[in-house]
Amino acid sequence: MKAIYKKLFVLLLLLPAGLLAQSSLSGVVVDSKSNQPISGVNVVVKGTQQNVTTDFDGKFKLSKIKEGDAVVFSFVGYNTQTVTFTNQTNLTIKLQESENQLQEVVVQVGYGSVKKKDATGSVAVITAKDFNKGAITNTENLLNGRVAGVVVTQGGRPGDGAAIRIRGGASLGASNDPLVVIDGLPVNNGLSSINPNDIESFSILKDASATAIYGSRGSNGVVLIKTKKGSKQDGIKVSYNSLTTLNTIAKKVDVYSADEFRNLITTYVPSRVSLLGTGSTDWQDAIYRNGITFSNDVSFRGNLLKAIPTRLSVGNTSIDGVLETSSFKRNTIALSMTPSFLDNHLKFEVNANYATEKNRYADEGAIGAAISFNPTFVNYDPNSPFSGYKEYYTLNSPNNYTVYGASNPVALLQQKENRGRSNRFYGNIQTEYKLHFFEDVKAVVNLGYDRSQGKGTNLVSPNSRSGIYNAAKLGYDQNTWGNSTNTLLDSYLNYNKKFGQVKVDLTAGYSYQNFESESYYSTNKLLPLSEQKPDVVTSPGVNLQAYYSRLNIDLSDKYLLTVNFRRDGSSRFSELNRWGNFPGAAFAWKISSEEFLKNSKTVSELKLRLGWGVTGQQDIGAAAYDYFQRYNLSAATSGATYQFGDQYYQLGRPEGYNRNLKWEETTTINAGLDFGLFNDKVTGTLDVYSKTSNDLIAYVPEGSLQNFRTAGFQNIGSLTSKGAELNVNYKAIQTKNSTLSFNYNIAYNDIKIKDLGGLNFAQGSVGLDLYTQIHQERLAPNTFWLYEQVYDAAGKPLEGVYVDRNGDGQITSLDKHAFKKPNADITMGFMTNYNYKKWDFSMAWRTSLGNYIFDNVNASRSFLSQSISDNNVNAINNTTVDFSNTLFTQKRAESDYYVKNASWLKLDNVTIGYLIESPFNVESSSLRLYSGVQNVLTISKYKGMDPEVFGGIDSTIYPRARMFLLGLNYNF
Questions:
Q1: One-character DSSP codes across 171-199
Q2: What are the beta bridge partners of residue 486?
Q3: What is the pLDDT of residues 149-168, one digit of tens each?
Q4: Which one, 423, 513, 596, 734, has least CB within 10 Å?
Q5: Where are the beta strands (DSSP E) in 803-901?
Q6: DSSP H helices in 503-652
């Protein structure tokens, strides 16, 4: 302590001398209209290397400044302001919003970035101010409902990923997932391992003129994610975020209560009344619980060694699912470093991320079992051989059981332990060098790496019904592991030069990406060794290589032209069709820069965009490597063998193949309008588009003995998608004490199968040889294909009575008809943000119109024979209350009665917060406390648990929780 006091004393003695030698300038930067502080403003002493950024309270401090120095204040969305230093000690700088904030927004466009005002393609940018609020524990939920034409369907289980669809997708049999790129690294391992608080912005490329630069990977759109970076400001800024939620069940499936079930059995299955118990159990209450979510993360942001802008974040998330035994835990570390050297000629960007995930997967069969299990039973039976859990069974002989009826749902959960653990490291190092001898040219090299390692165990108690094997109690014990590696090399040159009124930006480069994976499963280790068949599966891997180029021409800051081209190669195709060419072009006209609008007080921004492009699809699922000429060995004990002497040998059987399989290609035409009105009080975009996908890959019949198989993959058919999108932002109030803003987006999409070579493909299996959907020409993909139900005068369905649509006097499969579709015609999102002094309020809505669901929850169990009245005479099962509407005796899953209107309106979240400035007497700090509700309200005609079902068939889903949340953000 004495040494510290001595140092402080010396500093105090030297302080006056230091003040005589130099001056300093402090101050605060605020918005000129609201007087609210602005953080992150760049403050630069012109002509020097001295620069800082304002802190969370808009404050800054410059030292070593001389009289006459020019101090420049700049920030995205505001006019730059310059102040001459005349020995002031403190300043309040009021920045004015630029006349067109749209012009300053930076868009990531793949291998570079442009200002939004210069973008020629259909690109949406979502930054922190646009993100969804509330209980956000996964990355996808930040943008759910925020972008027109982008549909995010989030699952309910803890740590579940989301399905993202941009403009409805572009394929029938291949992947419809968009390409996701994180800080320049294309990834395919999902986003669950990313901490949402590390995300700075999303750039979503929607039309082919923008996505063609990604060639074979851009047919379903591209999501570019930019993570938060460090700061050049001296000192360390710390941000701590904490969130706690109480997770509850929002809605249950409507089933018969114990007393109602007794009446049901007495009325319709009187011969089995003796099977009724004396209990009264709501099995859905028995399997669901209130879960807790804890999410905490802390980040450190500063300028390491005064030369390396650095950000380090550490996060932890723990989620208890609403289904008993399910849980998810995630730990994340993210490091970003962005140093520059040689007077900013040499720049590095280093991103390193590490995440661990631990999952306990509940047996989701318990959800269906809770609907069907006898409600007059109690959970515990002292005579049960299954660890005391009540089950339907017959003991035939010692350790020989016959089981029947629905399983005890609590036992399914508690007697199974299915756990998984994964580690993932991903990141990249990007080097950018601006040539000293030719500063118009820069070279960029990006090296990326993504490695995932996972392992799992699946244990089922030997004293469980589900652990029975060959009628005896055995149990289950399985180990699995899997590893995947993704390596990337991107290198390109960029030339940027202005010739008078013409600005030229040219990029050309090469990309190499390689994917490898292997996995292992042990089968059941409790089986006799002769029956165990463990296996290691090594994928052939995927190698992608490409050459690409893009030319941007800006004429007089009014007329913009973009031309790009990519030549892609994929190892998923034979050498005959390995390479594909993917061009794109776009033109934009800044109408508001013309003389007749330049000084308009009404129109502050108006830009017309026209685009065209071709993209490909190489992520072709089961068709990958169909060009390989392969042999499969017959089974050692039960397959075909060849006798040679006294020995029997396995046979190698040739597999069918198709060396002519080639890329799916999607051609898109897009026209758009970006607009700003009344000094950008109202801003928005309007787009119309048409997409056509050709050479669709499908599994089709082949000639008998023609190719060692009767069916295989071929390129047939085409798919069209047309639509329109509108996004509007409105700043309703902007005063000193309050701001109110609205965001609204709406999208229309019409997707049809144009050609399938005259073939039809049954989809949507709901049982043995029972299909509910079809791929057919002139219909939407997965259109429901069922019999037309006939109803009586009271509106009740007549069992087994359908419309004879072809009039041949009999009901056959030829009488099925197309009836509705699962994809929505219209999707909308609406968000409002209101700030009053230190209070803030946020509310987000979403809606989906024109989408239908096949209600398989009812179709698979709401009938008498083999359901309520079990196959075995010693069992009875509960069902949904829809049975009272139909009184069906048999399963009628091919009736269009079960196709339900599933349009919905959802209030996703409501959040209210309060800001405390300089809490705990800590300067330049702020504390925001907030509370709210997630999954607040659902309005729909659909009577099931949740109308938001991906794929259109509701066969019981893991329920999305209603969350009551409490959180804080502390910055200092």
A1: -SSS--PPEEEETTEEE-S-STTS-GGGE
A2: 450, 515
A3: 999 988 899 988 888 999 98
A4: 596
A5: 817-818, 826-836, 839-849, 852-855, 899-901
A6: 595-598
